[in-house]
Amino acid sequence: MRLWTRERIRQICFVTEMLAKQSMKKGGRTESGFAELTPGTIRTMRDPTSKQKVEKVGSYKSAPGEIPRVQTGRLRRSITHEMHETLPIGRVGTNVVYGKSLEFGTNRMAPRPWLRPALHKVRGLAASIFSTPVV
Fold first, then answer.
1. Element (H or E) spanning 4, and its range?
2. Could you tell me which residues are beta bridge partners of residue 26?
3. Nearest-CA neighbor of 122 among 48, 22, 33?
4. Which helix (H) or strand (E) holds 91?
5. What is the pLDDT of residues 109-127, one digit of tens each?
6. Chain segment 41-71, per-residue pLDDT in tens
7. Per-domain residue ranges for the chain?
8. How many helices (H) and strands (E) does the chain have?
9. Burial annotation 79-98 (CB, 10 A radius, 16+ → b, else e)
């Protein structure tokens, strides 16, 4: 029974990790919306309305309350999950120092949550995983 529970918790943690990573997309804010990557390129960004090239990718930040925009990819790469050695407890998070500041905000910056939206999306999946009977 304990092994079954640990495996289900591991699945939930993995899905939460993937959702948090997928929610962070490369692309910045412009006057008309979010800049988009030009197909076939790595760094060329274009304004979705005017189709003009966006000069500085790093100069467009996410708005307060939005999921943070990927600038270097460090936070997205650092998101991981781990399981407790013996107990059926899992954690999803990051070791990047500014991850907590982005999630909850600071006195100088409004929050830009990246983990809580993923947890809200996975809530229904977690309920269905634990409601299925053990075979």
1. helix 2-23
2. 70
3. 22
4. strand 90-93
5. 899 999 999 999 999 888 8
6. 666 777 767 777 766 544 456 778 888 878 7
7. 2-24+67-131, 26-60
8. 4, 7
9. bebeeeeeebebebbbeeee
